[in-house]
Amino acid sequence: MTAAAQLPGVAVERSLAQDLGLRVGDTLRLGPTPDSLRMHAVVAAVYEPAADPSTITRRERHLRLHLPALARLLGAPDRVDRFGVALDSGVTPARAAALLNRAAFGFRAYPSAQIASESSETFLVVSRFHRAIAVITTAAGAVFLLCIMLLKVEERRLDAAVMRFVGVRRRTIFAALLIEAAAIAVLGSLVGVAFAYVAGAATNAYYRRFFDTTLTFSLVTPGIVAFGVALSLALGLGAGAIAAWRLVRTRPLVLWGRG
Fold first, then answer.
1. Residue 50 gets which letter from DSSP?
2. Are 251 and 259 within 8 A, CB to CB?
3. Residue 248: phi, psi to the nearest 5?
4. pLDDT value, residue 45
5. What is the pLDDT of residues 152-163, one digit of tens each?
6. How confident is the model at residue 202, as a pLDDT?
7. Nearest to residue 247, comparing CAs of 182, 183, 170, 181?
8. Least enclosed by CB within 10 Å: which of 64, 131, 157, 228?
9. How far is Cα 237 from Cα 254, in angstroms, rounded to an integer?
């Protein structure tokens, strides 16, 4: 048996292996501090860790050792900071945690769902912040859209006056302007959806490269698209109806500029 085969094996995270230029079979010197690298180990595997949004900003690099090797490295046998427990099917995590906490002192057991919930508080705050921005943006967009529709309808004053002079009913003019507003809203929705997909792809490409991860930072779902298109149609039709109603209620001579 060679000396390398007698060394403990470690699994090195892919990004750490890339940074240090490590490959399977390389020998490492490990220690709890940089000035105490007294333990030799061999790289047994290079692994890709699961993407975790709660740790992505820490820029930490990891390697994994078997528990006896880690205890020997730290000089602290029979001691761990944390570990996970797999449960059989049908066992409730909360009940298992309660039983473990009543069994002995010196540790605290938590259900994985509770840990995930507490570690996701930051993302919940960010999500609420994004929702507030979306509401403000939608309100501002609605006001802007109403102003645009009023200006566009004002440009049709002479056309509306001529149609009224030749006997076209107000209902027909109102419907024509409403259809035009709907067409503009649909076109704007399509442009907005295309922009959202392009912006989302650019965001994912940039941050995946920046953080070296496979996480998805921007996601445009069919539900979001459907909500955006429906909201755009509602706002467009509402703004078009207000602008058209204001136009058809005006007397033809006033529209012609003689009233």
1. P
2. yes
3. -70, -20
4. 93
5. 777 878 888 888
6. 95
7. 170
8. 131
9. 25
**Token pair in block for residue 118:** 């507490």
Residue 44 is inside which H or E element, if any? strand 39-47
Longest Cα–Cα distance of the chain, Å, equals 107
Distance CA 177, CA 172 (A): 9
128: tokens are: 């609420």
Sign of CA dihedral 60, 63, 65, 69: negative
pLDDT of residue 206: 94
179-197: pLDDT as tens digits: 988 888 888 889 989 999 9
Q: Residue 102 carries which side chain, given as an amino acid letter? A: R
Q: How far apart are CA 116 and CA 124, in angstroms?
A: 12
Dihedral sign for Cα atoms in the order 119, 125, 126, 130: positive
DSSP H helices in the chain: 3-6, 14-20, 67-74, 93-103, 112-119, 121-154, 157-165, 170-211, 222-248, 252-256
Average pLDDT for the chain: 85
Here the tokens at position 11 are: 């699994």
> What is the token pair recorded at 213?
């991860």
Distance, CA of 199 to CA of 192 (rounded, Å): 10
Cα–chain center distance at 21? 32
